[in-house]
Amino acid sequence: MCHLQKESKMAKKSMIAKAARKPKF
């Protein structure tokens, strides 16, 4: 229903994926 919620969810997922790809020090 809410487009914004979907967008923010996808953005969060992509951010998490990016963080997971990067090695944490």
Question: Could you describe the 3D structure shown?
Answer:
76% of the residues lie in helices and 0% in strands. With 25 residues, the chain is an all-alpha fold. The protein is rod-shaped.
Question: Which key phrases capture this entry?
Answer:
mainly alpha, rod-shaped
Described by the principal axes of the CA atoms, the overall outline is rod-shaped
Which residues sit in consecutive blocks of at least 5 with pLDDT less than 50?
A: none
Number of helices: 1
Instruction: Give me the secondary-structure category.
Output: mainly alpha
* Number of DSSP-assigned strands: 0
Helix content: over 70%
Which H/E pattern describes the elements? H
Radius of gyration (CA) equals 11 Å
Biggest sheet character: none
Strand content: under 5%
Q: For the record, give the distance between the C-alpha atoms at the N and C termini, rounded to a whole number.
A: 39 Å
Mean pLDDT: 81
Oligomer type: single chain
Quick structural overview:
By secondary structure, this protein is mostly helical. The protein is built from one helix and no strands.
SSE order and pairing:
Layout: H1 3-21
